[in-house]
Amino acid sequence: MKTLLSFGHGYSARALARLLPRDAWQIIGTTRSAEKAEDLRAEGVEPAIWPGADLTEALDAATHLLVSAAPDADGDPVLREWRDAIAARASRFAWVGYLSTTGVYGDRDGDWVDEDSDLRPATARGRARVGAEAAWRAVPGLPLHIFRLAGIYGPGRGPFEKVRQGTARRIVKQGQVFSRIHVDDIAQVLKASIDRPNPGAIYNLCDDDPAPPQDVIAHAAELLGLPVPPEAPFERAEMTPMARSFYAESKKVRNDRIKNELGVELIHPDYRSGLAALLRTETGS
To answer: Keyword NAD on this protein (predicted)?
Structure first.
């Protein structure tokens, strides 16, 4: 029996868990709340409320680690508490995955980046991820795999509800492009890496079609048969600092490595495919 210990068992990790057969896998997932712990238990995941729980026994049992927990102002929360314990068990792990972000590449004025591009984070979140990646790489003997995720969407994280409510905005910044990834493709890439471990590897997780965000909203409206929201110039748009920070970076992200090394064929190679699948899920058609 293999055991996955998943730190911060959230949206992407839960999608991976659905791909792991429970007759071959035990899954232990950490969460911060008792309510979410019950949700995980209902999915066949053994929950642990952490920070707070003693995870020594879980680490002893783990053959695989997945880290989704984000760094905070003091660095990586998993390493802060469990670095020595993880390092002492490094040789026992068959695979360790760390979920990072394509934000580590910073702003490229719409140009392409790949896994060998230098890291130029333009935001505090990006800088924190660069630091966390380095901290995980510094743990000796760890079979570490780093996954840099583009903007995540999927069930419950699509644009349709805002379009239906009339609150969606098509904010336009000249030359702005984002890369994205459907959660089902995140899950299949993680599973492919578990099946074909390559310690030290770094993978970009994104689809084949980086696109302006206003185009995605427009396509969602067209799929729903609703009016396309009007364009709003970025310079005059009212936005939270968090929302505005996403527009500080424009780049296109290459994903050749997940295809060439892991043999992945994307389920949703572009946002059109992904949105159509979301709508079918929502409507049951």
So the answer is: yes
- The β-bridge partners of 7 are 67
Number of domains in the chain: 1
Residue 221 lies in a domain: no
Answer whether residue 88 is part of any domain. Answer: yes
Query: One-letter amino acid identity for 106?
Result: G
- Cβ-proximal residues to 2 (8 Å cutoff; 6+ apart), any chain: 24, 25, 26, 63, 64, 94
pLDDT tens digit at each of 285 positions of the chain? 999 999 999 999 999 999 999 999 999 999 999 999 999 999 999 999 999 999 999 999 999 999 999 999 999 999 999 999 999 999 999 999 999 999 999 999 999 999 999 999 989 999 999 999 999 999 999 999 999 999 999 999 989 999 999 999 999 999 999 999 999 999 999 999 999 999 999 999 999 999 999 999 999 999 999 999 999 999 998 888 888 888 989 999 999 999 999 999 999 999 999 999 999 988 776
The reply to whether 273 falls in a domain is no
Residues in the chain: 285
Instruction: Please report, for the domain that includes residue 50, its CATH number.
Output: 3.40.50.720
CA dist., res. 99 & res. 190, Å (int) = 10
pTM of the model: 0.96
| Single-letter code of the amino acid located at 100 | S
Round to whole Å and give the CA distance between 219 and 275: 8
Which residues, in sequence order, are CB contacts of 105 under 8 Å at separation 6+?
Answer: 113, 117, 119, 120, 121, 148, 249, 251, 253
Q: Identify whether 274 is part of a domain.
A: no
